[in-house]
Structure formats: C-alpha cells, structure tokens
C-alpha cells in the first residue's frame, strides 16, 4: 500500500480539483442515499397504521447538542411528530404521496451525484495513464544506448502497453473505489450508530474475522501478477523477433520451431494467468458470502430484540437499519476487490519503474560550456571503455587527433572497437577512462544538444521512419523548406528516384523504409545529413551493404557530403578510404597502425593483411 500511495502522490497532483470534486459529490450521494432510505420508515408506519404512538417534539437546537446515540432518536421523534400533524391536517393518502415524491427527488439527486462523482474521475484515470506513457517514452528517449543493449525491445514495448494498461485497469480503476468507499462507509456507519448503537456494536464484533478472511484470499497476488507480466514481455519479445526475422525464418523453414517456442511461453502464461484470475474470481463469492453472514447475524439479533418486545427498535426502524447495513456491505466488497486489483497493478508498476528509475550515466553538468562551432580538432586522450555488463575492455588507451577538415578512416576486423570509438564522440556512451575533447574542451563539459548539433551520422543500416520522404530528410531540422530539402536530395543523388514515386516527396516509405531499395534508403539518409549541414560527419560503413551499382551512386553522394567537412569514416572495403588523410587500424580495442594508404601497405602489418584478403 505504501508503493500505491507514493504513486498516487506522484501522478495525481495535477488533478486535485477533480479529486476534491469527487469527494464532495460522493458525500452528497451518500447523504441523499441515507435520507432516501429514511423515507421507508414513515411510509411503513402509514401503510401499517402504526401511528397510534404519541411523539414528543424537541427543539432542533437542542437535538444538535445531544450525544450521537441520543440525537438520532430525538430527530426521528421530531420527524414523526411532524408527520402526525400533517396526517391530521391533510390525511394519510396525501402525506404518503408527498413522501413518495420526496423519495423520487432524493433518489434522483443521489444518482446524479453518483454519476457526477464517477464522471469527474475519468480525467484523473486517463490523465494518469497519459502521464505514465509520456514519462516512459521521454525516459526511453533520454536513456543512453547502453541501457538498450541489455534490454529486449519487446519487453520495453510490453511495459509501455500491457503494463500501463494494467495500471489503468487495476490501480487507476481502484482509485474511484478508494475515494468513494471510505466516504460511504463512514456516513452509513454514522447512520447505523444513530439508528441503533446496540445492534451496530454487536455486528462489529464479527467484522475483523471477515476482513481477515478477505486478506487471506488476496495474499501473494502481487508476486503472481509480476510473473504474468514478465511472461507477457517474453511473448511480446518473441513477436517482435518474429516480425523482424520473417525472411530468415521462412528461408530456413523454421516456422515449426518458432511456433514451438511461442507455444512454450504462451502456455506458461496461460497457467500463471489462470491462477491469478482464479484468485481474483474468488473475491466476489467470498465477499458475497461474508456479507450474507453479516446480514444474517444482524437479522437474528434485531429480530430477537423485536420478538422480545424491546423498545430499542421496532419493525420499520429495523427494516431501515437492514437496508443501510446492506448498503454498507457493498463498499466493503469493493474494498475487497481493490485489495486484489491494486497488488496486481502495482506489480506492473514495478516493471514500469525499472525504466523510469533507470540510471542515466550520460549526464549534463549543471553549467555546461556553450559551444557555437567547431574550429580546431577532436582529441582522444588515453580513452578506455567497457560496456556496463563488466565485459573486457572494448577500447584501451586510445590516443587520436582528428583535425578540422580532414578525413580520418578507421578500419579493422569485426569487434575491434571501431563503432564504439565513434559512438563516444556524440556521447552515446561516456568513456570509462581518459577524456575526449573538441577544440580543447572536454565533451562532458558541453551541452549535449550543442555537441550533437555539430555531428551528422550516416550508418550502415539506414534508420528511416514510417513517414513521407520529405519528413525523413527534414528530420531534426526545424522549419525546413521544400527548396532546401530538394537541394539536399539532389546533392545526395536522390531527387530523380524520389520524383518517380507516387506523390514525390510526400510518398510514405513504410516501416523502416521498406518501400525503398537499400541504395535509395541510404541516399535518403545522406540527404538528411546534408540538410543538417554539420561540420563533423560520422560514416559507419555507409556503403557496406550495397551492391556495386548502388555503392557507386551512394559513394558519389558521400564524396559531395564529405567535401569541406571533418569526416570520421568506418569502412570494411579499403577501396573506399584509400584516399583518406589518415587511416587508423584497430585490433582488440587498440590502435595498432596509422598512416596513409601507401605507408600502411609498406609496413606489411595488419593493414597489408586486410588489403591482401580483399584483393583475393
């Protein structure tokens, strides 16, 4: 419950006005409910002609000053005295009609307040869910890439969809009950004490036992629900993997194998969900049975008082008492439902908090240095790096200068640390040791936005979005004009094929650009980098996955892009970087050779070996 209250304090603050509105309307609903049921008593007295008793009127100013146990009896005496006078003056039928009309009015007011109390909770429920989704999404955007290397995409999607939905259903849905039910219970309890404190005291003697039984049923529900949501993440992860790997699955005729894997996880989820649902389904029958037991106990004790002629309570009052007692049982039942639903939702909240409370190691200092351009060089000074899982050093004592306007190529075998090295420049990660500087300023002292504004990326895998070609090229550039986008596309050798598409620049390219060829996707990526016009360019094997014809077209576009820019190019094909100002050869996370193409060949070392292998 502590975790639930912390969550409510965190997310409910913007909706306090709705919360107080719900409280006020629930109070009115409960009060109108008590008074509407109170009409039953005089109606019964009139119908069964039980008005021969003489009632004494006590001034209302004195009634309000009486103890609670005496106040109710005196108030009822005044009501019955007034009814007697009205019957004597207007007759029984007219008074009965007035009471019936009054009952209708009170019921209308009660139901209107009940609806209003539910309606004002809708903005709170939907607002909490929207706020949760926005916090998760913004946290995902802010977290470093290292976080996602250890998390499955399907699991993150499951937390943002299924877990948030569970919080809405279980926790936000229970919020209304937690506001309404205490109000109803307090007001109905005051009414029960006012009607007959003796019967109420006797009934309360059995309440703790019943609440204990309800608690036993809901025990361990949070843990079981957490297991269910974890399995749901596994399901989503397998679906995401399947959609991304359909081509391979079909090529290797692995449909049956994948179906078997999916069957295992869905069967485990079915069993676990069945246990949770069974325990939840037990809530209503148990609370129904215990409520009936409580009603029966009160019925026996009250009937005993009436049969023995006890003056504490008579038949109409007893019926009114039973109606109110039955009314108080419904909120108690709702509490039992909430006691099962909230732990289930809080299990999902724990999984959501794993993202929301994840530590971001790439932090911006409080007073960053403002940077308005790039004028000298990028420097790596004794840089070392390993991934958060504590694996071996990926980069070890890297010392490197990248002067402005030069093209630096980085080559080496797979796993040598090439991509990790360039990912440190825009601070996708921070080094474990050493420092990286731009114009002599450590990049940790710069504003991240200023740093990344200097850098453009073109990667081996073209990262495009399911949007128009125009929006993909203009991505990240505020208020880009059509003329500037077209000019960037022409420089990237993309304009001609774009105009062949239906709608031209408004053509929607599909998920990850599936409606375009590999070369077309890469040229869109290059056009995006050209439009950004950064002084520093990072090319991560930008032509490695293309065929010869596409590579030639893309390389022409890259050459235009690289002119007059500082370029760091990772390449497997040495033919694309032989004209670089300097080639850096990496192996096992270290720089083992450096120089121009001819110089490195003359060394007969790692570079010569790579060159000879590609020449075969």
Summarize the structure.
This protein is α/β, with parallel strands linked by helices. It contains 25 helices and 10 strands. It folds into 2 domains: 355 residues, Up-down Bundle (ABC transporter transmembrane region fold), CATH 1.20.1560.10; 239 residues, P-loop containing nucleotide triphosphate hydrolases (Rossmann fold, 3-Layer(aba) Sandwich).
Quickly list its features.
616 residues, ABC transporter transmembrane region fold, Rossmann fold, 2 domains, six-stranded mixed beta sheet, 10 strands, 63% helix, 10% strand, elongated
Report what the structure shows:
Helix 3 packs antiparallel against helix 6 (92-119). It contains 25 helices and ten strands. The chain folds into two domains: 2-356, ABC transporter transmembrane region fold, CATH 1.20.1560; 377-615, 3-Layer(aba) Sandwich (Rossmann fold). By secondary structure, the chain is α/β, with parallel strands linked by helices. The protein has helices spanning 2-11, 16-38, 40-47, 60-63, 68-90, 92-119, 122-142, 145-148, 153-195, 197-204, 207-218, 221-244, 246-251, 255-281, 283-307, 315-356, 418-423, 448-453, 469-473, 482-491, 495-500, 518-532, 548-562, 597-603, 606-615; strands at 377-385, 395-403, 407-412, 433-438, 441-442, 455-459, 536-540, 566-570, 582-587, 590-595. It is elongated and about 120 Å long.
